From TrEMBL, chains A, B:
Keywords: Amino-acid biosynthesis, Coiled coil, Cytoplasm, NADP, Oxidoreductase, Proline biosynthesis
Metabolic or biological pathway, per its Swiss-Prot or TrEMBL entry: Amino-acid biosynthesis; L-proline biosynthesis; L-glutamate 5-semialdehyde from L-glutamate: step 2/2
Gene that specifies this protein: proA
Gene Ontology biological process terms in this record: L-proline biosynthetic process
Protein name per the record: Gamma-glutamyl phosphate reductase
Keyword Coiled coil tagged: yes
Main subcellular localisation: cytoplasm
Task performed by this protein: Catalyzes the NADPH-dependent reduction of L-glutamate 5-phosphate into L-glutamate 5-semialdehyde and phosphate. The product spontaneously undergoes cyclization to form 1-pyrroline-5-carboxylate.
GO cellular component terms attached to this protein's record: cytoplasm
Catalytic activities: L-glutamate 5-semialdehyde + phosphate + NADP(+) = L-glutamyl 5-phosphate + NADPH + H(+)
Length: 416, 416
């Protein structure tokens, strides 16, 4: 007999074999059934969520975190609507990406197939529970969910509704498995379930992600932190630059694709830095700059070395003045987290060099970094934004939850 | 100051930035220069290799392992020829795999780019040293090589020639870095070089691969073990079946795509098992079977439960008789290692079901499993065969050594 987690892993593996055989119609029917069931079980979900919320408040959880934890009628309706939208998306599995004949007559095709079992480790956002299930199920995977202990009552209630929706659609209920024991031991064991879990996706803060990367023997897709830069080139359209900077910094402050640092060519600095300062002051953004930047505005406070590498997720931004595009590229490649970087330029050559040489998931010319997002990229869904280089990089839609297998059609070929 | 391994990691990272900027012409020139230098330094390479070989023999290394370690004039010529062949391949980097316009006018493209720094951990095959360098360099990566201590003199001599070839082509010599300290501490540190090494590829036996998977915090591409099956369906062409089985088992015994286990439909068993036995006896293959198989031939010895999961890499094969295609699929999905599986059948429906439901990198109909190989698949190169599902699955050619980045062309877009 295996441990608690091994048993979950084995059940998920078995369910994943069934999931891989379902037609797109069957999967879509399941998603709609689950959406309906979430609404039917609304009252129970909100009651259980209230337990989590009052326990969190009693423990003195920060108001912004309590807000992420809290479900309302509208938020549950949004979960259901999210599943309906996933049902409406194209199913990426089954597609043959290429098929070629070899000289010996073998036909070798590469087909997109489900990953198998996906593990998600996340914090106290109960909406992730329904959303992650929907994306994994649509792509023919089983999912093992390990949410934060703060949200355990909410997650149990949501998973109950998902299982009931699956049952009504005559689908295996083990397609979703919740780790109900939220102890540190079970999460550590989950990260070692090599052979049962095909990929682990951590969703949450930098600490959670680092811990999964450090401890997991299961392959991990790192999502995450964004220390995103905007570089204002010599000769850039400065009004465009200021509009883009304002958007990238202030349209939503606490997200990974928000701009955290500006790099300014020294020939643009004297003109554009005062423009930036006055625009960002409208949003009460604190500005920390190097010596040159500070000399150009009394509103800028000195930046420390630590600032260059900091993802503020807050109303703070840093400014570095550089003497060349080379220096800008070097600075960004030194301090960025491989997420999203943008150049504001009118120069053809500089635009190409920036896109070639910056090492990041998304490299923009003359646009806000805030577009790095599965929906903005037109994927219709997003399981996270990968900041690593294996398997998936940048916003991950349904395709990131698939792998491929080679299918080979022969007529008796043997190797000589 | 960083440790020995951090210093290597940092040097490789710097070199990888340069590598990413090289044109295909520059890289090909570098490969040809290194090929030439290997021939120029032939004598030194063979002398240093002789030290490894005599030390290994003095320690009593098995003859087959000494043979893998030994270099000859022809083997060094083969290394040089391998690099010339890599130079002749298409460069996959730079290709834009898709480019679409979004409704707001953003043009979003997905471009294939180098991974950055590739780490290879391998055993005592000095030919891997030149080969891995060639594949990584062609794709614009820097490589850190950690070979076995048994081959350290050979590896140093080969790396000397590679660096000299790079120098003559005016290319950074840090594009190849050899871990000269082959202690356990340095390899453990190498597996933790998250942030410096973008991917680790272990090449070697099951023990080496398991150790890297267990201990690495750097993303790993697992290559490896193949417990490959051939299923003979009811109504199969039995002469074709026996020819394919003979080829898959005996054409080369010690390789990962060799067949290790047969699964036979009970309606075919009485006729085909004696045919298989007499054919495999020509190659002195020991046959271990379940009760039904043993009853059909006095030459078959009883198999234990352990046999079903064993990759023999030797003149041994197991036979399991099943009552249905379902039972065959279940048996294979239970015991296989996700490498290569084949069905011999005349049934359209069974061929499709086998390809759909078997969970492996390569699923064949009516062909030998021995074709799972980068060269046989037409990739012109192979860095290994991935038996895991993330990033790359099956034979890995040059593309497996690349990632993608999104390149976004805007004209002032901000997010609403």
């Amino acid at each position: 007999m295996g441990s608690y987690m091994e048993t979950l892993g084995s059940r998920a593996k078995t369910a994943s074999r069934e999931a891989g055989k379902l037609s797109t119609n069957e999967k879509n029917k399941g998603l709609l059934s689950v959406a309906e069931e979430l609404l039917l079980e609304m009252e129970a979900i909100l009651q259980e969520n209230e337990k989590d919320v009052s326990e969190a408040e009693a423990r003195g959880m920060k108001a912004s975190l309590v807000d992420r934890l809290r479900l309302t009628e509208i938020r549950v309706q949004d979960m259901a609507e999210g599943l309906r939208q996933i049902a409406a998306l194209d199913d990426p599995t089954g597609e043959v990406l290429s098929m070629k004949n070899r000289p010996n007559g073998l036909r070798i095709g590469k087909r997109r197939v489900p990953l198998g079992v996906v593990g998600i480790i996340y914090e106290s956002r109960p909406n992730v529970t329904a959303d992650a299930f929907g994306l994994c199920f649509k792509t023919g995977n089983a999912v093992i969910l390990r949410g934060g202990s703060d949200a355990i009552h909410s997650n149990k209630a949501i998973v109950h509704a998902v299982k009931e929706g699956l049952r009504k659609a005559k689908l295996p209920q083990d397609l979703i498995l919740l780790v109900e024991d939220t102890s540190r031991e079970t999460v550590n064991e989950m990260m070692k379930l090599h052979g049962f879990i095909d990929v682990l996706i951590p969703r949450g803060g930098a600490g959670l992600i680092a811990s999964v990367v450090q401890n997991s023997t299961v392959p991990v897709i790192e999502t995450g932190t964004g220390n995103c830069h905007i570089y204002v080139d010599e000769g850039a359209d400065l009004n465009m630059a200021v509009d883009i900077i304002e958007n990238a910094k202030t349209q939503r402050m606490g997200v990974c694709n928000a701009c955290e640092s500006l790099v300014i060519h020294e020939h643009a600095a004297a003109q554009v830095i005062p423009m930036i300062v006055s625009r960002l002051k409208l949003h009460s953004v604190e500005i920390r700059g190097d010596e040159t930047a500070c000399a150009l505005s009394g509103e800028i406070v000195p930046a420390s070395e630590e600032d260059w590498g900091t993802e503020y997720l807050d109303a703070v931004i840093s400014i570095k003045v550089v003497e060349s595009l080379d220096a800008a590229i070097k600075h960004i490649n030194t301090y960025n987290t491989g997420h999203s970087e943008s150049i504001i330029t009118e120069s053809y050559a500089n635009a190409l060099r920036f896109q070639d040489e910056i090492d990041a998931a998304a490299v923009y010319v003359n646009a806000s970094t805030r577009f790095t997002d599965g929906f903005e990229f037109g994927f219709g869904a997003e399981i996270g934004i990968s900041t690593q280089k294996l398997h998936a990089r940048g916003p991950m839609g349904l395709e990131a939850l698939t792998t491929t297998k080679y299918i080979i059609f022969g007529s008796g070929q043997i190797r000589r």
